[in-house]
Amino acid sequence: MSLSQRPKALLTDVFGTVVDWRSTVEKHLTLSASESLNSSTKSIPSAVRAAASEISWPAVAQLWRNSYYEFTRTYDPGARDKSSFKTVDQHHVEALHTILVDHGLDGLWTDEEVQKISMIWHFLDPWPDSSPGLAQLNGSFVTATLSNGNTSLLSDLARHGSLSYTHIVSAEDFGAYKPHPSVYLGAAKKLGVEPQECALIAAHLGDLKAARGCGYQTVYIERPQEESWSSDETAKAKQEGWVDMWIGLDEGNGGFLEVAKRFGLRN
Length: 267
Ligand SMILES: *[C@@H]1O[C@H](CO)[C@@H](O)[C@H](O)[C@H]1NC(C)=O
Ligand SMILES: *[C@@H]1O[C@H](CO)[C@@H](O)[C@H](O)[C@H]1NC(C)=O
Ligand SMILES: *[C@@H]1O[C@H](CO)[C@@H](O)[C@H](O)[C@H]1NC(C)=O
Known about the structure:
By secondary structure, the chain is α/β, with parallel strands linked by helices. It has helices at about 20-40, 45-55, 55-75, 90-100, 110-120, 130-140, 150-160, 180-190, 205-215, 230-240, 255-260; strands spanning about 10, 140-145, 200, 215-220, 245.
């Protein structure tokens, strides 16, 4: 372990790092589509039916997630005033609608149903190590979310997944989205610690790099299909050693349990 000093606060990314958005969203889309297609009270145009039988719901889940990534990555806090801050919920509804239109699926669900389906992002199942691992870590550190998800969404996820956090911190608190520095710096300030006393735990090297640029220590948890950096870039990052703690896929007890173990906590 090469963490220069034991951090006081552990902040975690949430989507993909703590919760397995992919399997939850795929299942939910698949089920919602078959419910709609089976409904005897709905008249769905035959072209939409045909499109729905062809579509890959895992691919839709990925497009939906990509749209969120683009949305947060390109969000410019200076270009909007705080009252017009667009929430992740709003984004999810609009993005799903656009994906449906683009794939000839407009009409499979009513607008109300699209809104309801979009709330699945509040009820994502955690990876198996997340709840027990966070419980151990929360016993020894100040723990907090550090996510682009809206505060109520994060509270719902924490409740749904029995995730032990001392604080729920959202990018929403700072009117910006990660990787904008104001989010990492604002979070440290909100917790009353220096950035150097914080470690970010995430499954995305881009997030860690931005946090590190703000003075944070960094913990990487590999998760299946989560890294957007190429395997070459990932290997290079590992070799360069700028990530302070690197937890490989299926290493030791896995994910957060392995983080707890490396910090000397009993598993
Ligand atoms: C929809 O109908 C199909 C075929 O009858 C069935 O296999 C499937 O379980 C149904 N799905 C739901 C959600 O009712
Ligand atoms: C966060 O999302 C909830 C609904 O999920 C919404 O009621 C709330 O207004 C959102 N927060 C902000 C600041 O828009
Ligand atoms: C996390 O730790 C804090 C501080 O010890 C405690 O107040 C809180 O109840 C814990 N959270 C959970 C969900 O156990």
